[in-house]
Amino acid sequence: MAKCVSPDAISTILANPSPESSSDVPDIVVQVIDLKATGASGNRFMFTANDGKMKLRGILPTNMSSEVMSGNIQNLGLIRILDYTLNDIPNKPEKYLIVTKCEVVSPPLEMEVKSEVKSEETGIVLKPKQENGIKSEVKSEVPGIFLKPKQEMVAKSAAQIVHEQRQNMAPAARMSMTRRVFPLVSLNPYQGSWTIKVRVTSKGIMRTYKNARGEGCVFNVELTDEDGTQIQATMFNEAAKKFYDRFQLGKVYFISKGSLKLANKQFKTVKNDYEMTLNENSEVEEASNEETFVPETTFNFVPIDSLGPYVNGTELVDVIGVVQNVSSTMSIRRKSNNDTIPKRDITIADETKKTVVVSLWNDLATSVGQELLDIADKSPIVAIKSLKVGEFQGVSLSTLSRSVVLINPDLPEAKKLRSWYDSEGKESSMASVGSGMSPSSKSGSRSMYSDRVSLSHILKNPSLGEEKPVFFSVRGYISFIKPDQAMWYRACKTCNKKVTEALGSGYWCEACQKNDVECNLRYIMAVKVSDASGEAFISVFNEEAEKIVGCSADELDKLKSEEGEENPYQLKLKQATWNSHLFRVSVAQSEYNNEKRQRITVRAVAPVDFAAESRFLLEEITKMRASK
Amino acid sequence: MDTSNPSVFVNAELLRLYVGCRVRAVIQVLRSDGGVVTGKSTDENQIIVKGSPPVPLSNFVEVIGIADTEKSIRAEIWSNFGNTFDTHTYNQLCQLANGEFKHLFL
């Protein structure tokens, strides 16, 4: 039996990730390097399989642990892999070798097997070369470095060596020496123990909560490793108290014994499929030789006049503007637990000549807010990262615990803003971005971006609006207006209610209790609206129908009675067809012949602003890609 | 619809990659003299367009033609796009249409 590694053993393994049985596995002998204990009680052994050309990280089966501990399998020794499985490491091209059956081939060789890079001889026996120490078989005639198995050495098991090394080391050094640092990207919920070396790139505040199980406290940090991978780590109660002061922004830590689970996509702030939780048993040790580095905040500013599409969305925005006004601190009582938290409102303006109010909460209200108040007369520039966009007064911005506020930052946008303000901005009249976007405004373009859905969302959900009507905005085309439908009703000129034909002549309004010779015709029609996802019949009332058809009901009625080759009435309806609009609709349930039916009614209609709509679509595309 | 000769949506940066190909771009007209229009692309760089522009030429125009150098297009079709145009959105379109969603366009 040749006491050497099988050539291309690793390639052989990689080529066949899951052999059917041990008979499917060819003769694979590899050298064991980097052997170390792992697992909860240190009774499993990880290693790297080396065939001289390639290396593969892996783990030995539990039934081999005794062989390691007795010294039969040692670091630099050879084993024959009889059965195995190859696992994927998420997000990395490398694989992980799980050995299910193996046997000892040779005690430790003198050093790691390395083959000559240019060697074309991939014969069964590795020929010794002068340059590198390639181990050869026991054929002493061949010149070169001859290595014989070190039988003279006292057989020490890997566990023994590790223990000896450990004994006299200081804790920090001990950690980095005896544990291999895993890249964040290789972590998954099924991996046993790992150690990561990460920097805290964001630290949230400690929040208290109350739920059915009682009270608690929680905070989270954003961790980034050397490769740039990020993950969010959360700590509750005891762990939160234990680690809150230990974790400092910008410092580097070795962390182990945390647990991973799939990230809740709704609340994802960091790009990672997983999120980490640390409990009281987790280990967090500061890395002594690392410099503290707080990464520079990068901004992606949204001009104030473009905030509309973000209202009530989940995407956070960054803004920069000149401070126009700073309010005094207000105390707001939180409904959930009656805590009072400080808040301060500042008004900022930018080159779009629009202003917006930003609410600073907690620390930001008291610290930064006070600073701004003191220098408010100098019209300072403020840049804020990670703001939530709400709909109070049309558009409102609110800080979160992760928001960052910079006063007079050294950014090119700040310089541009300063020169604009000093030259013309100071004098120009500015309007609040929210005005003209009030929720009650019928053609408010703001409302056309909130609760935006596709028609299929409404149609697929027959129970929508069961208790009280639900509102959505939809963009669609008028796809059909039935020419012969009761398109209008006779309405009282005064109160718009339906009138009945009076005995004799004229019309009687029950509500006004009077007769009138004339009446108005007011639209009440059903139109078919279609979008990319589906089609639905929607009821439209007078004001909105006038916008869709392009004339009043009285005028359309006149057209109906006109004679002509091409019926102008039909033509008018045709012209209204296949136009796109933005609709604000209400969805409710009504009973008809004992059947529950969904009723969709138009509450407002607005023309499509193609530029704004395109920006909205781009945002939707970004959201779709992010959630993949 | 004749789909035999599709044109690639380009800005100045993408134009460099499609020299010799049929491209389309929206530019903001900076100068127009003789048969050469100097325009600002949607990614704030300059593109030269050769050919016979329509008269009058609006502020924004879409040109479709062959990219004869890294910075110029020999336009066959000119379309006036008016005086206002959202260049940022068009630029995003160029990037998406040549990146992740290229298979939908060419």
Taking the sheet with the most strands of chain B, its summary is: 5 strands, mixed, barrel
* Global geometry of chain B: globular
Helix proportion range of chain A? 10-25%
Oligomeric state of shown chains = heterodimer
Fraction of residues in H or I helices of chain B: 10-25%
Overall radius of gyration of chain A: 36 Å
Average pLDDT reading of chain B = 93
Query: What is the number of beta strands of chain B?
Result: 6
Main sheet characteristics of chain A: 8 strands, mixed
First-residue to last-residue Cα separation of chain A: 52 Å
Compute the number of helices of chain B: 3
From the helix content, strand content and strand pairing of chain B, which structural class follows?
Answer: alpha/beta
SSE series of chain B = EHEEEEEHH
Rounded mean pLDDT of chain A is: 82
Alpha carbon gyration radius of chain B: 13 Å
